[in-house]
Amino acid sequence: MRRRNASAKIFIGLVALALLSFALLPIVWMCFTSLKTRAELFGAPGRLWPKVWTFSAYRDVLAHSAFPTYFANSVIVNVLASLITVLLATLAGYSFARFRIRGKSVLMLGILAMQMFPSTVLLIALYVFFRRFDLLNTYTALVLSYITHGLPFSVWMMRGFVDAVPVEVEEAAMIDGCRRGGALLRVVVPMMLPGMIAVALFAFLAGWNDLIWALTLTTSPAMRLIPPGFVLTYVGQFETYWNQLMAGSVMVSAPTILVFVFLQRYLVQGLTAGAVKG
Questions:
Q1: Do 38 and 243 contact (CB within 8 A), yes or no?
Q2: Distance (Å, rounded) from C-alpha 210 to C-alpha 227?
Q3: What is the pLDDT of residues 42-59, one digit of tens each?
Q4: Angle CA(121)–CA(91)–CA(257) in degrees, nearest 5?
Q5: CA neighbours within 13 Å on the CB side: how many for 86?
Q6: Rg of the chain taking only CA atoms, in angstroms
Q7: Secondary structure class of 235 (helix, strand, coil)
Q8: Which domains, from first to last, does the chain contain?
Q9: What pTM does this model have?
């Protein structure tokens, strides 16, 4: 039995290592490609690691005049969209969890059905709406589109987090003199903080990595976000600047990795907070 258990552990470890290597290979390839020269990119035979290490691609990206604009636009749009999404999802999730609403199940299913629509269907409708009201190439259009895209799933997540907070704790605060709004802010919100952080990260990363929405709703170079900015800058009709594209991808991936590392504990708590009620 001990030999069987040891063999099973070794087998599971090898399978996990193989899956981890498969998942990390694109990231490793991206990092090594960003450190290669243009001549080595198309040389034969191909190599995973560079023969000549160079940071010229990073210097070219940083020297590009539009890179700060792309980065600033992405930060502004995604931070605003994440904060508003968390606020609206918290209020909606609290309302569905605590109040008796006629047709609550139908409304929740309707919100879930909105998440099932293809993104292109929503994008076409939003594009027509924003064009009619002259909102294209504005922060308003980008923020509203990202909120629309991420809010349905966020509402379902926040309802689960509210259900995990005991009603008795909130009732005790109301007996002590708090109104419902005060109990929400002073009792429920602190207990749901990991869940709110999880929702904020979900909304932020979904918008940070988005290409099709930002590419469709913006045509002005001054309003481009990072994904469409990089595609239109380094992907041409006859040539793709792979080393600069990969260098830029590494640079814009670093902030999300750092945010995930520092908030990983809250993210794990938030994703499991609504798993058990009570």
A1: yes
A2: 7
A3: 777 777 788 888 898 898
A4: 70
A5: 20
A6: 23
A7: strand
A8: 2-54 (no CATH), 64-273 (1.10.3720.10)
A9: 0.82
